[in-house]
Amino acid sequence: MRFDVDMHGWVRQARRLPSPNCDARPCGMPVCLLVIHCISLPRGCYGGAAVAQLFANTLDTQADPRLADLAGLRVSSHFLIRRDGELLQFVSGHQRAWHAGVSCWQGRPGCNDFSIGVELEGVDDGPYTDAQYEVLAALQQGLLGAYPLRAQAAHSDIAPGRKTDPGPGFEWSRASAQLERVAR
Ligand SMILES: [Zn+2]
C-alpha cells in the first residue's frame, strides 16, 4: 500500500470530501506534528455517514439525542481511517484543519497551526483494527514524503484533562517508527 500527496496537499488514493471547516496555516509554518484521534458517531457506531456529515456541517444533531451536544460545532480533521481501512480526506494538508482545539505541544499552543490530524474510527476505550494500522502506517509514510513531520502525539497528549483519545487501545508500536511519540 502506498499513498502519494499531490502538490495541493491531497492524498491521491483517499476519498476526498472537502470540509469548509479549515483555513490557512500561519505563513511559513512547517507541518511538524501528527495528531492521532478517534471518533465515532454516535459513539461506538461504525460505518455510518455521521462523521463525514459533522465535518461537512450537515449532521442533523436533532436526529439522535446522542448527537445533541454537537449542535453548532465547526470541526474537521485532515483524515479519517474507517474500521475497514477506507481513507477519507477532508482538508488539504497545506490547510489548517480544526481538530485539536485548545492544545499545547512542546510549549507551543494552538496545535492546529502546525499539525495534521488523523481520526481513527473508534472509541477511546476500545481497540483498533489491523486494517486501520496498515493504512495509518502507509499514510504516515506518504505524509513524511510531503511534510517535515518529526513526531506524533495523541490528542490526549496535547489536550490533557480535556481529551482522552485515541486511548489506551491504540498501539503506538504499530504506528510508523519514523515518527516518535513525543507527548509534550
Ligand atoms: Zn481528538
Characteristic key phrases:
single chain; 184 residues; alpha/beta; seven-stranded mixed β-sheet; two-stranded antiparallel sheet; 3 helices; 11 strands
Major beta-sheet overview: 7 strands, mixed
Q: Can you say what the CATH homologous superfamily is?
A: Peptidoglycan recognition protein-like
Give every kind of bound small molecule, once each. Answer: zinc ion
Strand content: 15-25%
Q: Please state the overall shape, judged from the principal axes of the Cα atoms.
A: globular
Helix count from the secondary structure assignment: 3
N-end to C-end Cα span? 31 Å
Total domain count:
1
State mean pLDDT (0 to 100 scale): 96
Radius of gyration based on Cα positions: 15 Å
Question: How are strands sequenced across the largest beta sheet?
Answer: 1-5-4-9-3-10-11
Pattern of helices and strands: EEEHEEEEEEHEHE
CATH topology: Lysozyme-like
Task: Please give the CATH architecture.
Answer: 3-Layer(aba) Sandwich
Derived from helix and strand composition plus strand pairing, the structural class reads alpha/beta
